[in-house]
């Protein structure tokens, strides 16, 4: 497993993390107290931790903070980097603090390594939200600040309006089939030492199911060996820049082990350009 500096956090994170967004059906079922395949999901996260992954992402919206809490309880807390996200409806200062404390209770933790604004809310003054996040960082409840699903303009606005702490990470939809991030955001984040957490890194499984892509993946396999298409998709992200951390969903121990098995693959410039020109 490759380990890299995660933004300005001072933490060496595994190049590939674990996401815990399962699907909307899972979320709706949890309102009725139904947690489908809970043990399998917990075991998937444990499998990752036991085999070198130390980066886990969750969110209050996902209803998986309790799953993460159960999975990590027998591991050393300071050896794991855990991020969670706050809903856009909870971005006023008072709501934000309440939401954070609920998340910490769900996680059974005293602090979260990274607290992320899940989506922007243009009805709430972002400056006030960021000020409150800095206060909660000062209080020790948050170690690092992040944002998700922000435009380039809004990312820069965030950087400019954090006064005491740096923007540590940005979470965006990024994969070989969706590379808008590469237009300008990726370079900006790298220049400013901001980690990019890539969600949907295998494009909702399209990299494995799309037969039209198979010939292209076969060309890459002819250069690097018999590697699954999903692992090639992940290796593109970890190869293009050392500040990119894909967070594929951890719901099945076998899939997590496959991600780990091929985590050290690094694509050369020729293959990176091939993907950019052909996918």
TrEMBL record:
CDD domains reported for this sequence: AKR_AKR3F1-like (cd19072)
Gene3D superfamilies assigned to the protein according to its UniProt record, in alphabetical order: NADP-dependent oxidoreductase domain (3.20.20.100)
Domain NADP-dependent oxidoreductase: 34-276
Coiled coil region boundaries: none
GO molecular function: oxidoreductase activity
UniProt superkingdom: Archaea
Matching InterPro entries: AKR, Aldo/ket_reductase_CS, NAD(P)_OxRdtase_dom_sf, NADP_OxRdtase_dom
Protein name, per record: NADP-dependent oxidoreductase domain-containing protein
Lineage: Archaea, Methanobacteriati, Thermoplasmatota, Thermoplasmata, Thermoplasmatales
């Amino acid at each position: 497993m490759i380990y890299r500096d995660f933004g300005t956090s001072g933490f060496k994170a595994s190049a590939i993390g674990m996401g815990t967004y399962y699907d909307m059906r899972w979320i709706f079922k949890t309102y009725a107290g139904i947690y489908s395949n809970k043990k399998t999901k917990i075991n998937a996260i444990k499998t990752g931790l036991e085999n070198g992954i130390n980066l886990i992402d969750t969110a209050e919206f996902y209803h998986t903070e309790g799953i993460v809490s159960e999975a990590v309880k027998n591991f050393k807390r300071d050896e794991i980097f855990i991020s969670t996200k706050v809903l856009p409806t909870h971005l006023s200062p008072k709501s934000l603090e309440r939401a954070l404390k609920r998340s910490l209770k769900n996680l059974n933790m005293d602090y979260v390594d990274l607290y992320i604004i899940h989506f922007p809310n243009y009805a709430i003054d972002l400056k006030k939200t960021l000020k409150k996040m800095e206060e909660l960082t000062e209080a020790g409840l948050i170690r690092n600040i992040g944002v998700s699903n922000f435009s380039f303009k809004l990312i820069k606005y965030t950087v400019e309006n954090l006064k005491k702490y740096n923007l540590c990470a940005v979470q965006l939809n990024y994969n070989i089939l969706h590379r808008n991030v590469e237009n300008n955001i990726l370079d900006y984040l790298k220049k400013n030492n901001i980690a990019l957490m890539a969600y949907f890194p295998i494009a909702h499984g399209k990299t494995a199911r799309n037969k039209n892509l198979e010939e292209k993946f076969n060309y890459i396999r002819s250069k690097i060996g018999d590697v699954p298409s999903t692992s090639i998709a992940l290796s593109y992200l970890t190869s293009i820049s050392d500040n990119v951390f894909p967070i594929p969903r951890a719901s099945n121990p076998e899939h997590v082990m496959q991600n780990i098995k091929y985590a050290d693959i690094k694509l050369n410039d020729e293959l990176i350009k091939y993907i950019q020109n052909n996918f």
